[in-house]
Design goal:
The chain is of the alpha+beta class. It is 45% helix and 19% strand.
Length: 113
């Protein structure tokens, strides 16, 4: 995957062959942070500047910056899936949270290969 990492922010990179430019956006926040460059070095520099500009703007405005994911999220399941997952976790002597985390990790390993 074409990604960059800076201060916990993940930038996803794409290349536009028509315009011969790299463009990117931060994917692990709801805040829109974008950057672009014509070389990898420029793209990296602009990514860092964009994140730093966002953090500086937040500081100047007295706003708490949105941090990349905290590790907590709510999930809605239909009741039968919830029950099956809870029963599966108990059968494996795991918490439901650990069971769901392992299931997600297993799926991520498949797509990140």
């Amino acid at each position: 995957m074409n990604t960059m990492l800076y201060k916990g922010f993940i930038g996803k990179i794409e290349y536009n062959d028509e315009f011969k430019i790299f463009s990117g956006s931060v994917i692990n926040t709801r805040v829109v942070i974008t950057f672009q460059g014509v070389s990898v070095d420029e793209l990296n520099r602009e990514f860092i500047l964009s994140v730093d500009d966002y953090l500086k703007w937040c500081e100047e405005e007295g706003i708490t910056p949105e941090k990349p994911y905290s590790g907590k999220f709510n999930i809605r399941l239909n009741p039968s899936t919830h029950q099956r997952a809870a029963n599966g976790a108990k059968m494996l002597d795991m918490s439901l949270n650990s069971f769901v985390e392992k299931a997600i990790e297993d799926e991520l390993e498949l797509i990140e290969m």
